[in-house]
Amino acid sequence: MTDDSSGSKSPAWQRLRAVARGRAAIALLVAGCVGLVGLAVTGQASVPPGLQFVQVGHWVYNSASQSAFHVDGSTGQVDARASVPGAEQGSQVVQGERSGYVVERSRITEFSKSTLSVENSVAPPAAERPVVLEVAGGPYLVYRNAGRVARLGDPTATVPAGGPLSMPVATSDGTVWLHRIDTGSICQLSRDATRLACPAELPKGHGGALAVVGDRAVVIDTTADTLHTISGDGLGGSAEIGLKLPPTAQVANSAVDGRLAVVDPDRKQLHLIDTAGLEKNGPTARPVSVDLPKEGKIAGPVAASHVVMVVDETRHEVLTYDSKGQLKSSKKLPENGEPPRPALGEDDRIYVDTSDGSRVLVVDGEDGSAAEVSIDDAARNGTADEATTEDPPDSEPLVPGVLSDVVAAATPPGAPRNVKAVAGDGSATVTWGAAANNGARITRYRLSWSGGSTTVDGSASSATVSGLTNGKSYVITVTAENSAGRGSGASAKAVVPGRAAEAPKVTAKAGADGRVSVTWTEPERHGAELVHYLVSASGKGEREVSGQSAEFQGITGTTTITVRAVTRYGPSGSPVLKGNPGKQSVTVPSGPPTVEITGVRGDGNNRLIVSVNADAKGSSATCEARFMGFFPSSAPCDGPSEIVINNVTWFGTIKITATITTPLGQATDTWTGQPG
Predict the structure, then answer these.
(1) 317-322/327-332 β-pairing
(2) Distance separating alpha carbons of residues 610 and 634, to the nearest angstrom
(3) Which of 180, 315, 407, 645 gives 633 a disulfide partner, CB atoms 3.0 to 4.6 angstroms apart?
(4) Is residue 519 located within the same domain as residue 449?
(5) Cα–Cα distance, 28 to 54 (Å, whole number)
(6) 571-624 residue pLDDT tens
(7) What is the pTM of this model?
(8) How far apart are alpha carbons 215 and 485 in whole angstroms?
(9) Are residue 546 and residue 479 in the same domain, yes or no?
(10) Which GO biological process entries does UniProt record here (predicted)?
């Protein structure tokens, strides 16, 4: 330790904080608006109001020396050491504004960053390795399987999420975003809040992953392959991502130069997806795809400001790429147990620890270069400052309940989800999904629109609004209320009440030349004004007709004619309603006919009955039968038919001729034999 100007001792961490403040001031003078990035899965962010405390560097737990060491990423030096005996290998270290925390599966040990001495130990809310978030108001530990979020900052709390979670993200204001794997709910935990609000959800059965783009939370729907913004009113704008993702896709914490990195572990590929499409409802550039090592087990990706990093866990190799997919660096770490563990520091560097804390790889977020720091060497050489006090005090016994669930005062509910409205005759039926109650039972839902409002019980999920004016456009908004007040509203798309016209009666007639003539009756319009009719034939599209007849040409085979009235309530320009469809099918003649004699019999009254199978090919047809070339007799025919020849007598073998005639031609068949 060195003396300050007054001759008193200055702890190492105070010097480190002074350096941090100086660097932050210089950064503000030079860049004006430097992005601050949170640990592990947070996104790039603007400088918070009032210049929130910036966490400098990275802490790592070294098993051999039973200590937590601080690495200054800008110099590659180890500059502080806190003795935390008894922690298990692979323990994570996370820092807040004043304290650091060594996180094990069985306990969380707090040490002061000022005195570098242990202050307390508490029991974690779940026996699993959490995801770490160093953000304003935190740090946070997210226990994904247990569905719990522990905040180690002030106020300390554990917040239940209610189910398993995908990888969380956080925005610069300290809001943590969570995605429930089982229900699809997307929830937020605001800074200092003790309860979740869940404003959005993915469709049932859809997988998803969260990220941050432009300091806004977004979600990739890995089932529909779309990217959505998230707001307090639910899912916002969306864009197709331009490729098919598997359910196992791993999404980066944030975008890199406008592209969001996604690892496909099945195909061993890194995809860089254009995010500008969120503003234009579609991708503006094709995804960039990079082949990764085929035999490796890939983890990540983790994104800094200009590079994205993945870990080949099989080879213990760290690979960095820029937003164009160019490989920037490749660096191996020693194989000493579990795979390397990456984390993103607020200094825009990615730190990759070995499982025993013997080495740390520092990846520069600007150019992707990587430098290795030996924690073992620092421990042996004593280059890191330690606490000036004597041996650190024994940690307190585990204190169950310090991180127990907090029961906080209720707040107004969240916005109802998936609000939809369907127009009726002077009415609209509205449906919605339950709003987050935020600590108090929802007592009622309020539906409001221009000119009126109504309320329903808090257990309801639908209501019918009546007394609306047909032809007028309405936007209906639903808000939830509890004992703490009324929450924010969510609106359905505009609906126009009215009663659609009834179906007209349609008559269709086919000609032999492929023409179909159509007429229809005027339908009941229920007081609405007729705008026009929509008339269509199968495969011929739809046309607008002002009268009550139409003709189609070039029709072959069987076609269905559909007619519906389009009506409106109000003057020209008012919204229109499509009426109920009237339909009629007709077969158009398609070629020359055919005929086949299937039998000849006598009835004992000097009559022969000739059975034929006639195919008129959609036309009207006449069949004629002759006995021995004489005594012609004819009748209409189509399909199985009979022709009667009168006043004939016969003995032995006879000959019968049958002829079918249509507008498209003739056909003949003969039969020789003895009538039955």
Answers:
(1) antiparallel
(2) 11
(3) 645
(4) no
(5) 12
(6) 887 788 899 999 999 888 777 899 999 999 998 889 999 999 999 887 789 999
(7) 0.55
(8) 29
(9) no
(10) polysaccharide catabolic process
